[in-house]
Amino acid sequence: MPVHLSTLATYYGRGHHPEPPRHLGTRYDQSGKFLPEPGNTVVCHLVPGSATEQALVDARARYMGMPDAGKLAFTPVESYHMTLFQGIIEGRRNAPYWPAEVATDTPIAAMTELFAKRLELFPGRADFAVEIVEALPTGLVVEGATAADRHAMADWRNAFADIFGYRHPDHDSYQFHITMAYLIDWLDDAVLPSWQTMLDEVAEDIRRRAPVLELRAPAFCSFEDMNWFEELRVFGTVEPVS
C-alpha cells in the first residue's frame, strides 16, 4: 500500500504540528537519547539473522540517509519487535491503561511480577503470520497475512486483556507496527515528497524479500527504556526464560 503524501503531511509534517512530538522529554530527549520509562509488554521479536531482519537493517540505513533524518531517534535493531499487547508503563497509571483492582502507585517491577504470575498457566493461542502493510517515517505498519491470522491475533489480544485486567480504547482497532524510530521534531514539509518515494520503495523491498515477516513467538517482556525488551516468558514453553 503506497504512502500518500497527505498522510505524511498530516502525521509527520511541521505544517500540521505547532506542538512538539508527544514522547519528547519522556521517552527520549532532544539528542535522541532514550530516557528511563520502565514497563512491560507482550511482543514478537524479529528472528535474529533472518532475511526479515536484514531487510529492516537495510531499510534503517535508507531512513538514516534521508533529509531530516536527524529529527528521528532511531531504536536499535536488536529491539525491533511487533507489539501484540501493551502492558503497563511508567507515566500512564490510570484507567483504562491499568487494572482497576490494583493500586495505581504499585511499582512497575511489582506489576511485572503480578502479570507474570497471572500468565503462568496461560498456554498461548494459535500461531499467526504477519506481513507488511506500509512503511512510515517511524517504522512499519503490519497486519495478519490472512483473515485467519488476523482473527488469531485478535484472539491473543482478547486473552491478554482478560488476564491483565484492562482494555485500551483502541483495543479492537489497534494498529500493529514495528517501531524503528521516534520523532524528535517534525519533518519539514519540503522533504516529504522524497520521504514518500523512499518509504514506498522500502515497503516494496521488504514485501519482496520477506513476504511473511520472520517473528519469534510472543513473549511477555520487561523493559527500562526503548533499547531492550527482556523476554521473561515465551508462550508455548513451560518454564520462564532463565
List the helices and strands and how they pair.
Layout: H1 5-12, E1 39-45, H2 51-64, E2 72-74, E3 81-89, H3 108-118, E4 130-136, E5 139-144, H4 147-164, E6 177-179, E7 181-183, H5 192-209, E8 219-223, E9 230-234
Antiparallel strand pairs: 1-3, 1-8, 2-7, 4-5, 5-6, 8-9
Helix pairs in contact: 2-5
Task: Record keyword descriptors for this entry.
29% helix, 242 residues, alpha+beta, disordered C terminus, 9 strands, three-stranded antiparallel sheet, Cyclic Phosphodiesterase, Chain: A
Question: What does this molecule look like?
Answer:
This protein has helices spanning about 5-10, 50-65, 110-120, 145-165, 190-210, and strands at about 40-45, 70-75, 80-90, 130-135, 140-145, 175-180, 180-185, 220-225, 230-235. The strands form three sheets. A four-stranded antiparallel sheet has the order 3-1-8-9. Strands 4-5-6 form a three-stranded antiparallel sheet. It has a two-stranded antiparallel sheet with strand order 2-7. Helix content is about 30%, strand content about 20%. It is an alpha+beta fold and about 240 residues long.
